[in-house]
Design brief:
By secondary structure, the protein is an all-beta fold. Helices cover about 0% and strands about 45% of the residues. The radius of gyration is 24 Å and the shape is globular. A hairpin with a 4-residue loop joins strand 14 and strand 15.
Length: about 575
């Protein structure tokens, strides 16, 4: 590799911010990279791209049609790819953690005091040494975490798929620093923790059934005691639920189990039906933590699968819930759902929604009656309203990053965990070193991205860059996974710089539009991606300031999981590449 600048001069700054873009980093939260810097290379290289600013704007009509009045909130509470939410209360504070798969930092943590206004306060996985992301597909990595708080300690338990397996992290504060992972000797996915009244701690999880599966999707829920002092699972590994709520109907993918104790009764909630249109949440209860558990005859307690998918502004795939009890005894639930723009296509990924839990006369919790749609606006919980966060988590908004801070804002992510330093924040500029790790590979590319949080969204950046050799490129990407993405970049075509658009839709990328551009190293060129459902426009502005459309109405459905597969939402991000570095 030929670094464009000495890596020791560039501290990697994706530590966890506690408030706004300009917040200072807490001690101990800055990621540490291996101290294996190569010898300086004196060969000539192009000046790396310098990004002056990045602006994201989201303008979904549904938020305008369903505004939240005083005493109300808008769903989703965490817009954009933030699936598998889990929630915990510590005093008057509430915390949510969501899945992050192969994006780094991993497991974002959000804080609220009113369950309505949420702000990211950090992430659990901030050090490359914590988990090994090497070679992972973007929809592998960290699945379905659970967050819990008990006697001054925060716990996050999760699964590193195709990696370390089921692991547990602890921290005195949700903003970190979080511990190295504690391995758990259990299989399956979706582990959760339950602290019983007598001090006993249990881990529940999804895994295979006791014998060979009877059909595809036949899974089971299990429980085992956890010893916090020894940091290991102990005692018998007991079966809680086999198959699901109605075994004779061959239910699929029972998973994401959480146990709660209410008035001496143990309640077990779980997702069922897979993550697609048949997704749901179901509940069981028992007089003993280890069962037997009986299912609620009114299951599911949350789903949208019975509704017409052609209804206006549908919310679909609802399920994978977690509960939290408020000080006044009311219960609320967070869960995932999606907002498709047609025929099951959604580029915003699976998002986090909030609804109250209602209790039936015979003591069963219900999130939503089967015939009702997930509302975009609902009455807020009975809690003192807090100030809206500086970086909104829902509704229509514009966020601009001028890169004036000493570290990247917490909403920025990398694809997999960096093992070397390749970006620098200095004097209001983000410099990204072009490297030979391609965005279309399983390597760790020079990519800094943020989630697409709206169906109608615009991402714009301003960059100084002139490629030195053929094949070098830098610009703006709309990324779903390594085989499905668009790349709007400045590169070199023979003897002159060009702006080009590459499309990957199931394999290697190909150039679908190109235009020569006259730029020098001091010139600022702007790049823009505009999304409107399944249509994406790509344009650029040369130093003259006039905007030019490079490609209009490109097929944006390739950025949906319906087309690309997997479990993540689309990202907009800045990227640099050099084949010879």
């Amino acid at each position: 590799m030929t670094p464009a600048f000495p890596s020791k001069a560039l501290p990697l700054v994706f530590c966890l911010l506690l408030a706004s873009v300009g917040s200072a980093c807490s001690s101990g939260t800055e990621p540490t990279l291996p101290d294996d810097d190569p010898e300086p290379d004196t060969t000539t290289s192009a000046v790396p791209p310098q990004f002056e600013w990045f602006e994201y704007e989201g303008q979904d009509s549904v938020f305008e049609e369903h505004p939240a009045n005083s005493g109300q909130y808008q769903n989703p509470i965490l817009a954009g790819f933030k699936p598998d939410p889990s929630i915990a209360r510590a005093g008057d504070d509430y915390y949510v953690v969501t899945s992050s798969f192969a994006y780094f930092p991993g497991l974002p943590i959000f804080h609220s005091t009113d369950l309505v206004n949420w702000e990211q306060v950090g992430s659990v996985v901030t050090r490359p040494s914590q988990l090994d992301y090497s070679g992972l597909g973007i929809s592998r990595g960290i699945f379905a975490p659970t967050i819990r708080y008990h006697e001054g300690t925060f716990y996050v338990i999760t699964t590193m798929v195709d990696g370390e397996g089921n692991v547990l992290f602890t921290a005195p504060s949700p903003s970190g620093p979080w511990s190295d992972p504690i391995p758990l000797d259990i299989g399956g996915i979706d582990p959760s923790m339950f602290f019983d009244d007598d001090g006993t701690v249990y881990v529940t999880h999804n895994a295979g059934p006791p014998s060979e599966p009877d059909y595809d999707g036949h899974r089971a829920l299990w429980i085992q005691e956890y010893d916090p002092e020894a940091q290991e699972l102990v005692g018998p590994h007991d079966l809680l639920v086999d198959k699901g709520t109605n075994p004779e109907e061959e239910p699929i993918w029972i998973e994401a189990p959480h146990i709660f104790k209410v008035d001496g009764t143990y309640y077990l909630i779980a997702a069922e039906g897979g993550t697609g249109p048949n997704h749901s949440e179901v509940v069981f209860r028992s007089d003993s933590v280890r069962g037997p558990y009986e299912p609620y005859d009114g299951n599911p307690i949350l789903t949208q699968r019975h509704l017409d998918s052609n209804r206006p502004n549908p919310v679909e795939t609802a399920g994978h819930a977690d509960f939290v009890e408020m000080p006044n005894g009311e219960w609320w639930s967070v869960f995932l759902a999606t907002r498709p723009y047609g025929d099951g296509f959604y580029n915003t990924g699976r998002e986090t929604f909030l609804l109250p839990v209602q209790w039936t006369d015979d003591g069963w919790p219900v999130i939503l009656e089967r015939s009702k749609t997930v509302p975009f606006v609902h009455d807020a919980p009975d809690l003192p309203q807090s100030e809206p966060p500086s970086i909104p988590s829902t509704g229509n908004f514009t966020v601009r990053d001028d890169f004036e801070a000493d570290s990247l804002a917490p909403y920025w992510n990398f694809i997999r965990a960096p093992q070397e330093t390749w970006h620098e924040l200095e004097d209001g500029t983000l410099t990204i070193e072009p490297r030979s790790a391609s965005i279309g590979s399983l390597d760790q590319p020079s990519f800094v991205g943020r989630r697409q949080q709206h169906t109608t969204a615009t991402a714009t950046t301003a960059m100084r860059y002139v490629p030195g050799e053929s094949g070098e490129k830098a610009g703006l990407a709309a990324f779903q996974n390594r085989e499905y993405y668009y790349l709007l970049s400045v590169t070199r075509d023979e003897s002159q710089p060009v702006v080009q658009l590459e499309k990957a839709a199931g394999g290697d990328a190909s150039v679908i539009a190109s235009s020569p551009v006259d730029i020098s190293e001091d010139d600022l060129i702007r790049l823009r991606i505009e999304a409107d459902g399944g249509d994406y426009d790509f344009s650029y502005s040369a130093p003259s300031g006039e905007w030019s459309m490079l490609k209009e109405n490109a097929d944006g459905t390739i950025l949906s999981t319906q087309e690309a597969g997997g479990f993540v939402g689309a990202y907009f991000g800045m990227y640099a590449f050099s084949p010879d570095s």
